[in-house]
Amino acid sequence: MSTVTMLTQLGKGMISTAEIFSLTLLFSLPLGLLVSFGRMSRNRLLQAVTRFYITIMRGTPLMLQLLVVYFAPYYLFGLNLRGYRFPAIILAFSINYAAYFAEIYRGGIASMAVGQYEAAQVLGYSRLQTFFKIILPQVMKRILPSITNETITLVKDTSLAFVLAQAEMFTMAKQIAAKDTSMMPLMAAGVFYYIFNFVVAFAMERIEKAMDYYR
Amino acid sequence: MDTEILLEMNHIRKSFDGLSVIRDISLSVRKGEVLSIIGPSGSGKSTLLRCATLLEKMDGGELIYLGEKAAWEEDGKCVYAGKNKLKELRGNFGLVFQNFNLFPHYSVIKNIMDAPVCTAGAPKKEAKEKALKLLADLGLSDKADAYPYQLSGGQQQRVSIARALALSPKILFFDEPTSALDPELTGEVLKVISALAAEHMTMIIVTHEMQFARELSDRIIFMEQGVIQAQGTPEEIFEAQNERVREFIGKFQ
Predict the structure, then answer these.
(1) Measured between alpha carbons, how far is B204 from A201 in angstroms, rounded to an integer?
(2) Which CDD domains does its entry note (chain A) (predicted)?
(3) Is the per-residue pLDDT at A85 higher than 60?
């Protein structure tokens, strides 16, 4: 296989990788916030359930979670879902990353000074206003470095989708490498991941800078 | 003299983990009155202020704003009014914190005008005009677009006073407003409070600034161990016969 063909193939895989990456972020960031609410809830049951959920997501391999999410409908309920592969991948990634994000949100929210809540209360802000106008913007600024870390890990974790034979970049690289008995495709994939993360880190840095207008 | 009672606190009790911090305190504040609360650390002054401003739940007693009950006692338990009622009653007062608690992500002008717009439904233009006027009154016109971290402690505290005033409160509470400031900056904040007193703003001030309390207050309460040990006009307090009051005030002179 020529280098150009190989790079084209990897480029196609890259699109799939980028899809997994962006959809996972899109779903897991808000979901993580919801989970952190559950984790901090005064309702004991909700608290216990979310805590259990987080331990499972963090305590078992993401690769295993991918397999379970993909095969569970068939093995447990005998459902033969067509076109379920990609949604299964997004679902598994999203619920996994939501657990990590939830803990990051929780830490950020807990680190806020109680005086901010009290000032908001005295000024008549509702609980919702207090959270979304006063607390969350400050929390986002504080947790951004941790979010960046997770985001960079996610870029690399997308390669785990190969267990479900999703044609993302890592799967493509592995196939071409086996067919051509060459290491080049794997090296090229490495370079692609590196560039992807370079861009991600650059973007996150810009966002951090944009939030630098206050301390 | 207007004698309308704005705030009434009757038989307030509060304890933390079984430790009594406020034991049966009653007081009332009339319109235009400046009341200072002094006393040693841990005497319950700030807790009393936090009970009055609904930041702390009382264990017992009555809290009444302009004749309307915010909290009362039923079967030995303290019951609070409903959420909407409390929101309405909160509109009667403002609170200035010891460490300002400005919103760091909002500019000075936004800190001041956001609450009137978002919680009191004031038109944006009006709120902005009012905020600018308050800033001018407090000598902070050039800081409207600054962020809190760019200001000195004294400036931050003046902004937080402006923020409280923007909602046109009938009573303004101060919780040790100068305790986080160095002496140089204390003066500029005290000057603002004095100016408010001259305009007959009703104020309740928890403070360690004895001279200030003496000059400004209509009435002073001396608290110790959760009770009012003495109260009266500044003259009565500062020339008090009460041994504890004399001892306490003596430490500041």
Answers:
(1) 52
(2) TM_PBP2
(3) yes
- Residues in chain B with CB shorter than 8 Å from the CB of A123 are 115, 119, 163-164, 167
Per-residue pLDDT for A169 more than 80? yes
How far is A67 from chain B, CA to nearest CA, in Å?
Answer: 44
- How far is it, in rounded angstroms, from Cα B185 to Cα B209? 13
3-state secondary structure of B5: strand
Residue B56 forms contact with A (CB below 8 Å)? no
Candidate from B87, B97, B104 with C-beta closest to A124 = B87
Beta bridge partners of B173: B95, B204
Residue of B91, B93, B101 with shortest CB distance to A119: B101
pTM score, whole prediction: 0.90
Asked if B21 and B44 count as a contact pair (C-beta separation under 8 A), the reply is yes
Residue type, B223: M
Indicate the CATH number for domain A3-210: 1.10.3720.10
Q: Which of B88, B89, B111, B119 to probe the A interface (max A CBs under 10 A)?
A: B119
